[in-house]
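COMPLEX REQUEST
Ligand: cytidine-5'-monophosphate
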Amino acid sequence: MMTVLTERAPAKVNLTLRVIGRRADGYHELDSLVAFTGTGDWLRLIPGAGLSLVVDGPTAPQAGDGEDNLVLRATRALQARHHGLKTGAFQLTKLLPVAAGIGGGSSDAAAALRLLARVNGIAPDNPVLQDAARATGSDVPVCLHPRARRMSGAGERIGPALDLPPLFAVLINPRVAVSTADIFKTLALPKGETISGVAHTPVRAGLSRGELASLLADTGNDLEDPALRHAPIIAEVLSLLRAAACCRLARMSGSGATVFGLFDSREDASRAARMMHHHRPAWWIKPVVLR
Ligand code: C5P
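STATUS: Structure written out below.
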C-alpha cells in the first residue's frame, strides 16, 4: 500500500516587527512577535526513491515547481546535513498568495522538513532541522514549529512558544507581489549599523487579551513605510480595514503586502471579511484565528 504523509503549511503573521540594525553580512537584525493562522498550503509526501515536486492550487503558477521552490531547497539543505536522507514525491497545494509577507514559501519549506523528519526518524527537536531551516531562509526556523513566538537575530533566534490568547483577525492581500530583498534595501541601513532606541517588544507568556492589544498598539512594523513606497495600494488596504466596524488594529505583516486587522470576536472578523470581499472581490481576504 502506498503511504502518503501530509502536513499543513500555515501562514505566519508578524504582529510586530522592529528593525534593530544591519549586520556585517548584510542581513537585518530583527525583533518580531510571530503568530500562526489555521489557514495555509498543504504539502504531501509519498516516500520513495528520487525527489520530485508537483505544485497545484490557485497560486501554483507564481510559486513554481523548479529547484528554486523552497520545498526543494529545504530538502537539499537537509540532504547536505543528513547522510542517506530518504526523500520521495512531494505534492504542494498552493493556496496562499506568493511574495506576500505571510511566509507561504517559508512555511512550505518547514512543512517539507517536518515530513522528511517523520520519514527518516529525525526527532522534531533535532538541531539538524533548525540548521537546514536556517540555511533555507530567514523565516523558515520560526515556521518549523508553528506557534506564537518571539523571533530575533535575522530570524534564526526563536523563543519558546508563547501562550497568547487567540486573536481574531482578517488577512488581506491586494494581489501585489512584494520582494522582501527590495523592501530591506529601501531601508538603506549601512552594514554594521545599529539603530539606537529601538525597544524590544516585551512579550511574555500568559498575557491577557487586553495587555496584548495595548502592547501591539505601542509597537509597529518598521517595514511598513518602505513597503508603502513600493506598493501604495497597501495604504488603501490599511485605511479600508481601519474604517471597518470593530477593527482594533490594522498593520502590515512581514515585508508586505498582506495586511492584518484585529477584531474582538470571530463574528466581527467574519463580518469585516465579507464586507471587504463585497467591495474588493479581486483581493485575497481570509478571516483567521492567530495563535
Ligand atoms: O533569508 P531570505 O532569503 O528569506 O531573505 C530574503 C532577503 O531579504 C535577503 O536576501 C536579504 O536581502 C533580506 N533580509 C534581510 N534581513 C533579514 C531577512 C531578510 O536583509 N533578517
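REMARKS: The chain has ten helices and ten strands. The pocket of cytidine-5'-monophosphate is lined by residues 27-28, 30, 137-139, 154-155, 180-181, 184 (CB under 6 Å).
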